[in-house]
Every structure is written in C-alpha cells, then in structure tokens.
Design a protein that fits this description.
The protein is α+β, with helices and mostly antiparallel strands. The chain contains four helices and two strands. The chain has one domain. It is flat.
Length: about 70
C-alpha cells in the first residue's frame, strides 16, 4: 500500500489523535508525507476516535478542510 499512497491526487485530510494507540501517529505522519495534497491536523489528548473524543476540534477541522 505504501507505494500507492503517492498516487492519491485528491486533497486529503489526515487527522491524528496524538494519544492513538490503535493507529500510532507515526503511520498518520507517513500518510501525510506520502500524499501530495494532504493536510495534517494533530489533536492533543485524543485517541483513535476524534469524532467522539474531540468533537468540536474534529468538526471545525473538517469544515475548514471542506471550505478550502
């Protein structure tokens, strides 16, 4: 899969819960670096479910991304 990431041409939002034990942040950083038009959002004190654990930040980040 890693060799295909660079072929993603769509704008992509990569959101990282910095305390995520399910998908370690390093994997999300690799996605961000590998996708040419990716935007990165780091959410402190958040695990694997930012839509639940940091709802306001999640919603604001998605709305900002869609508005760009």
């Amino acid at each position: 899969m890693a060799d295909e990431i660079g072929s993603i041409t769509n704008e992509t939002l990569v959101m990282i819960g910095l305390d995520d034990a399910t998908t370690p942040p390093d994997l999300s950083y690799a996605l961000h670096q590998g996708i040419p038009r990716a935007k990165l959002v780091e959410i402190p004190d958040c695990g694997h479910c930012p839509q639940i654990q940091a709802r306001d930040t999640f919603v604001a980040s998605v709305l900002d991304f869609l508005a760009d």
